[in-house]
Specification:
The protein is an alpha/beta fold. The chain has one domain: Acetylglutamate kinase-like (Carbamate kinase, 3-Layer(aba) Sandwich). The chain is built from 9 helices and 11 strands. The strands form 2 sheets. The protein has a 9-stranded mixed β-sheet with strand order 4-3-5-2-1-6-10-11-9, sandwiched between helices. It has a two-stranded antiparallel ribbon with strand order 7-8.
Length: about 250
């Protein structure tokens, strides 16, 4: 038993054979769409839940942050004339939809999961309380952090970095549809070059699409590593957790 602090949690030994004992997994809302143009594809959701449960069964402690872009994107709505604060609040609610869906999929596979929301909605989920989240992790529950930071103008990338630091995660795993970070869009440029390793300063200086600048700065200030990897390749979450070279690692040398 620890004293409940992130510092104490981070000092515990990782799961057997794993590189990281406590992780923060960042999923985009679009990751839940699968082949659909909108919403949540049950098959895709089930695959993701099964992979998360697999690393949970190894003994890893897991926090998850999910975006809401498969349902509503605040920035896009604001660009069409909606008030930005209102649009972002709607986006935060979309992340609650996705978080509840993932909780259900995990519990259907036998994994205990809790949703904690930065916007209080007690009929649906717990309010975000750091010490309660730490206790859930210590008790072997997966904690899904919903509603971003609870504030407009902040992305779920920033929420992921913030929650990772608050719970003492050893790493942020940023799941994407490509196998790492490239110098330009590999879908548009066949000659795009993938990076195996980057520093935070290189990410910021080159304006690379890893996470937004606020999230990168948080990770830089606290030396929190980020691994960007391809979620669509089966088994990649486990490969990253086990320390296999997968995707792009962002950290200071």
């Amino acid at each position: 038993m620890t004293d409940g602090s992130p510092r104490a949690a981070a000092s515990r030994a990782p799961a057997t054979g794993a590189r990281y004992g406590r992780i923060l997994l960042k999923l985009s809302g679009e990751a839940l769409q699968g082949p659909l143009q909108f919403g949540i594809d049950p098959g895709t959701l089930g695959v993701i839940a099964a992979e998360v449960k697999e690393i949970h069964d190894l003994g890893c402690e897991i926090g998850v942050v999910i975006g809401g872009g498969n349902i509503h994107r605040g920035v896009a709505a604001a660009a069409r004339g909606m008030d930005r604060a209102a649009a972002d609040t709607m986006g935060m609610l979309a992340t609650v939809f996705n978080s509840l869906a993932l909780q259900d999929a995990l519990e259907a596979r036998g994994a205990a999961a809790r949703v904690q929301s930065a916007l209080e909605m007690p009929a649906l989920c717990e309010p975000y309380l750091r010490r309660r989240a730490l206790r859930h992790l210590e008790q072997g529950r997966i904690v899904i952090f919903a509603a971003g930071t609870g504030n407009p103008y902040f992305t779920t990338d920033t929420a992921a970095a913030l929650r990772a630091l608050e719970i003492g995660a050893a790493v942020v795993l940023k799941a994407t549809k490509v196998d790492g970070v490239y110098d330009k869009d590999p879908k548009k440029h066949p000659d795009a070059v993938r990076y195996d390793r980057l520093t935070y300063h290189e990410v910021l200086a080159r304006d690379l699409a890893v996470m937004d600048a606020t999230a990168i700065s948080l990770c830089l200030d606290n030396r929190l590593p980020i691994v960007v990897f391809n979620l669509t390749r089966a088994g990649n979450i486990k490969r990253v957790v086990m320390g296999e070279p997968t995707g792009t690692l962002v950290e200071e040398p």
